[in-house]
Every structure is written in C-alpha cells, then in structure tokens.
C-alpha cells in the first residue's frame, strides 16, 4: 500500500473513531415531558441471541483462523492477510461489537472453574480454545488477522519506531500481571476486569465512559508510532498465545528457503519479533557465565517467595474491589457512626433483612481468598521476572535472522523484504503465464 495513501487512510480512520466515540458522551434522547400525557414504556428484557447466530460466530472464527493460517504459511501473502484483518475488524468488531471475545473469554473459563453454579456457554469455550489450538499448530495467526483488538491497531500503524529491547522486556511483564489479576478477580467473583477495561470495545459499540474513550484513543494514537501497544504490552490472552506459539509445530518464516544474512529484513518487523545474528560478538568467559547463571537460579526462589509475600499483603485493597467486601465496609462504618449518610446499597441491604454478621463473615472469607490468591499471583509474577532475568543473562547463539516464535504475529510484513521470496513470487508468476498458454 502506498505510504501516502496509508497515511490518509489512518488519519481518516482515527477521525471516524473520534467522531463515533463522541456519541457516547452526549445525551442521545431528549428527556420525557411528563406534563404532556407521557406514558412510561413497559420495560422488556431483550431476547437471547439465537443459537444459529452463535454457531455462525464459531463458523466464522474457524474459517478466519484457517484462512489466516493458509495466507501466512502457505500463500505467504501480506495483501490477503490485510484484507482478512479488515473483515475481522468489521465482523468481530463492529457487527458483533467485540463480543464474544477470545481475550475476555479467559475470565469466563476461570469463573466456571471456581463457580459450580455458572454454566459457561459452549461458544465462549470455542472462542477460548480454538485460537490456542491453531496457535499450537501454526503460530499466532489469530493475532495476524482474526483478533478485532489487534485489527483496529494494525490498520493505523503509520511510522513505527524501534522500542529498545530492555524497555520491551520491562513492559512485557505487564501482560502477565494483567492476566494474573484477571484470573484472581474472576476466581473470587470480584468482576471481569478485562471486559471492564477493554480500550476498544467502546468504539465497536459506539458508547463508553469518557475515561475509556480517552484511554482507547491514546492507545490508537500511540499505535501510529509504536505498533500494537495493547497487544505487546497489555493483552492477557497474548501470554497464552505466546506459550502456545513457542510450541507450534509450524510457524511463519522470513524466507521460504534459506537465510543468507542479507539484512534486508532487519528493520521490516514493527513489533521487534526478528532475532538478529549474534555470532560476531566476542564469546563470554564460560566460568563467568556459569557463575551468573547459578546466582540467578539461586535467587529465583527468593524472588518468588518475596513477590508472593508482598502481593499477599495487598489483599485488603484488592478485596475491596469485590462488591460484598465494599458493602460490608460501608455497613461497618454506618454501624460504628463513622458514616452518617447511608447509601443506596446499604439501604437495599438493610431492607432485605439479612443479618450484618453474615455479610461480614462473607467479606472475611473473600479477603482470605484474596490473601491466598495474592501469594499465588505474586509468586507467579516473581517467577516470570526471575525467568526473564535468566533469559537475558543466557546468550543464545543465532547465526541467521529468525522469527521469534513467541512474539511473532505472523503478519507477513517481513516476507517481501527477502530476495528468495521475490524469486518465489516471480517463479509462480512465470508458471502461471505458461499455464495460460
């Protein structure tokens, strides 16, 4: 795509998003005039979506994943992937309004595991499992052209800059923290924070809070120069996709045959997912490397336990995000006289006639769950941090330019920079011309 045309497209796309998002901060309907015979409408509950349409969503997901995998690995076509990205943005984004979402489905799965009374829909399970299965076999083709959150960022990449590796490693911890918090909140029933803080669903539904609109617009504006900031530094589902992709049986490669280190692809990836050769570096003293590795391995349990202890101490502020704990604290403040004005929530609770002691006991149980969950979450984050330190200290030998299978989105941008890819395309074109005769 011509760069000038792409710039105009990106500017127009952002302007359309800003205009559409402004609909949510204005009053949509005039206030009813009660003096002119106005009658209140009878409230009705919306009918559930038909199962036929639910199965259609699953069919479209499977078809899109299959096409994305074919375009990335077999056809090796950036053009086809971009067209599929546009389709995913329209269908999964604007038509389906960002729901069902594979990213948010993590919470449904966790909530179903810890709440026996919740029956998770099969469609949600499909949206959680199928992208992971395809990633395990073909790499992150879901990120390439199927995820609507990735698609809305991909189309506005204008002039991406290189983010320093040390900063990428630091910011790369945030998706693990986000995933851990989402699991903790879903397991305890405190809420679905991934859906609550989705930066782009407001654009898909033409309505969101002012703060979330600003957050989403900020990410999109940042995304013009830092490619896919949400995908790289926030997406919790991306953690699972990263793990699956590292184990993938097949994966997109820069070159269709062999790498000659021509360096033409060196700056082609806006996501920094190409590992460069490092054979030219002076070899490190083996004993020094072993001592550093042993020290970091010995430090690992200290970091894990210390991180778990630190986060477990934060169980009270975290537990306050649960509605029952927040209500119990309000009841306690009212009963002790520290809060003289009752709220709607406390008045409703007292009207139900439920004993305050029961609510306080429930709140204490939830706080204990957060304390235990804090230990696990803190230990998990500490483990991730320690493993990152170890991976940075171990110098992996790399003789050619290779795709990082964990962070590569299989977007096919690097293909056209490879001279062997150009030869392959020319060969296909010659074969096509000969077949016509």
Q: What does this protein look like?
A:
The chain is mainly α and 437 residues long. It folds into 2 domains: 3-22 and 56-252, no CATH class; 286-393, no CATH class. The protein contains 20 helices and 2 strands. It has helices spanning 3-21, 51-75, 78-95, 105-114, 122-138, 141-145, 148-154, 165-171, 174-188, 193-196, 201-204, 210-223, 229-233, 237-246, 286-312, 315-319, 323-335, 344-352, 356-393, 419-436, and strands spanning 274-275, 402-403. Strands 1-2 form a two-stranded antiparallel sheet. Helix 2 (51-75) packs antiparallel against helix 3 (78-95), helix 4 packs across helix 9 (174-188) and helix 5 (122-138) packs parallel to helix 14 (237-246). It is globular. The mean pLDDT is 87.
């Amino acid at each position: 795509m011509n760069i000038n045309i792409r710039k105009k497209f990106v500017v127009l796309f952002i302007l359309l998003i800003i205009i559409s998002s402004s609909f949510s901060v204005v009053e949509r309907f005039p206030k009813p005039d009660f003096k002119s015979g106005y009658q209140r409408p009878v409230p009705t509950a919306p009918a559930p979506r038909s199962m036929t349409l639910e199965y259609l969503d699953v069919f479209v997901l499977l078809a899109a994943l299959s096409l994305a995998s074919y375009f990335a690995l077999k056809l090796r076509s950036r053009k086809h992937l971009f067209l599929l990205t546009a389709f995913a943005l329209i269908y999964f984004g604007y038509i389906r309004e960002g729901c069902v979402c594979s990213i948010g489905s993590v919470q449904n799965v966790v909530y179903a595991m810890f709440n026996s009374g919740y029956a998770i829909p099969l469609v949600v399970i499909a949206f959680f499992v199928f992208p992971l299965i395809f990633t395990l076999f073909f790499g992150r083709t879901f990120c390439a052209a199927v995820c609507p959150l990735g698609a809305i960022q991909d189309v506005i990449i204008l002039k991406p800059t290189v983010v320093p590796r040390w900063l990428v490693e630091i910011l790369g911890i945030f998706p693990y923290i986000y995933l851990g918090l989402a699991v903790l909140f879903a397991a305890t029933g405190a809420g679905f924070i991934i859906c609550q803080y989705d930066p782009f669903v407001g654009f898909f539904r033409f309505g969101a809070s002012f703060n979330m609109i600003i957050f989403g617009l900020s990410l999109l504006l940042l995304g013009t120069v830092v490619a896919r900031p949400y995908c790289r530094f926030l997406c919790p589902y991306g953690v699972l996709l990263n793990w699956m992709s590292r184990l993938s049986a097949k994966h997109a490669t820069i070159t269709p045959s062999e790498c000659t280190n021509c360096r033409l692809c060196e700056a082609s990836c806006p996501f920094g997912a190409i590992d460069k050769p490092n054979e030219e570096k002076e070899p490190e003293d083996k004993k020094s490397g072993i001592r550093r590795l042993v020290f970091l391995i010995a430090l690992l349990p200290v970091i894990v336990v210390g991180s778990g202890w630190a986060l477990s101490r934060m169980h009270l502020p975290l537990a306050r995000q649960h509605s029952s704990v927040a209500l119990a604290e309000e009841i306690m403040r009212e009963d002790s006289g520290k809060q003289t004005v009752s709220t709607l929530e406390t008045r409703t609770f007292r009207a139900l006639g439920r004993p305050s002691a029961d609510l306080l006991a429930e709140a204490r149980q939830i706080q204990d769950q957060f304390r235990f969950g804090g230990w696990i979450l803190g230990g998990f984050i500490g483990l991730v941090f320690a493993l990152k330190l170890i991976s940075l200290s171990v110098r992996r030998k790399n003789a050619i330019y290779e795709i990082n299978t964990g962070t590569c989105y299989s977007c096919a941008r690097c293909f056209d920079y490879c001279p062997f890819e150009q030869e392959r395309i020319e060969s296909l074109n010659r074969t096509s011309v000969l077949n016509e005769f």
